[in-house]
Structure formats: C-alpha cells, structure tokens
Amino acid sequence: xxxxxxxxxxxxxxxxxxxxxxxxxxxxxxxxxxxxxxxxxxxxxxxxxxxxxxxxxxxxxxxxxxxxxxxxxxxxxxxxxxxxxxxxxxxxxxxxxxxxxxxxxxxxxxxxxxxxxxxxxxxxxxxxxxxxxxxxxxxxxxxxxxxxxxxxxxxxxxxxxxxxxxxxxxxxxxxxxxxxxxxxxxxxxxxxxxxxxxxxxxxxxxxxxxxxxxxxxxxxxxxxxxxxxxxxxxxxxxxxxxxxxxxxxxxxxxxxxxxxxxxxxxxxxxx
Length: 271
Description:
MetI-like fold; mainly alpha; 76% helix
C-alpha cells in the first residue's frame, strides 16, 4: 500500500496559517464609513444628501422596530428567489440546447442576443400591459435579467470544451448520457458556477426595476419612497440592506457550489 506523499513545507504553512480573508474585505467599507462619520461629525462636510452611517443605522433600527424592515426584506427576497429559479431553469435549458446543437444555436442565438441588448427598464411598460402590476410581472422581469448570463455562459462553455476530451469519450464508446455526465459537465461546471453568481447579481439589480411596477412593499419600494419624501437616510438604508443581502446570497451560492469544484487544481495566490 502506497503511503501518501508528505506535504511540502509551503503547503503545510499555508494550511496552518489563519485565514483572515473575510475580515480583510471589511477594511475598505468600514474605513470609508468611519471616515465619513468623522467628517460629518466635525462639520467639515454636509451630511444631508449623504447621511453618516450612524443616521442610517438609526433609520434601520426604527424600520425594524416598526416591523417594516422585515416585511420589505421578505417581499424582495421572495421575488428574487422566484425570478432566479425561473431564470436559471430557462437559461440552463436553452443554453445547453444552443451549445450542444448547432442548428438550435443558429435558430435561437441571433434573436436572444438582440433581446439581451434591451435595457431592463424598457421591459417594464410591456410587462405591465401583459401581466399587470402584481407579482407575475415582477418575477418575470427578474427572470429575464437572470436568464441571459446563464444562457450566454453555458452555451459558450459547451462550445469551448476541449475537442480532445470529446474524442477520448468517443474512443471509450461513451453513450450520449455518459458523454454529458463524464466529459461535458465537469468541463463546463466552473463557467456555469460563475454564470450563476452573475445571474444572481443581475437578479438583485432587476428587482429594483421590478419594484418600480406598482409595488407597495419591498426594498425597491422603500428606496423610491425615501426619494419621494426627501429622506436620504431611508434611501441609504435600503441600499445598505441590498448590499448586505446581495453579498450574503452570493456567499451562500459560492459556498454551496465550492464542494462541486474541489477537484480543480487551480492557481491559488499566496498573497
């Protein structure tokens, strides 16, 4: 029985070194927040249009105490989750079809590339006419935003699979299912995971446009309400919550997919 090769000194030190990467990412935003708080507190700048973090924090506490913050967060989370689900399903299906079949790509890709160039806000009046101002139009708009990065990355990743890998599968007489499972899927998975994260980010962006469509609750509604009433601290509070939720959901998605990419022998910088 072969003994496992001993770890090199560099690898051993890297594994033993504490990982403070998560804390390093807080240095810039926390530093900027503290700096702005000090500038406003010293009277060197006017904090009316860009309120200091303390005022934003008080606004969040006030909204949370009234129960409004949880209501707005939940409404937005449900819309993003449903839009992301439908966008991923449709993007994966059509992207795989366009990547695997040349005739499907020639048939669908020109139209989809043209539709991809349409700004998100341009869909709003049309979706209101088609689906009304309730939840259906909002979820579909978010799904449209999620769809295109998934479709584009997946179809491109399938077409970029190394031809020699496919030839090896043919030499071993893999069936179509085995070819997909053992050759194509591992080859496209890294690009697909990046596409999922990009689609999720666009889902959070599109939900703001979606909540312009007659929403009575949601973080986008809170943002617009703060603008209409001239409360900059409410606008900033909704932006901060958007940033926190977007980062948290991206971390969940990244952590959930990392286990499927553990086989990669990829570059990991030391610094």
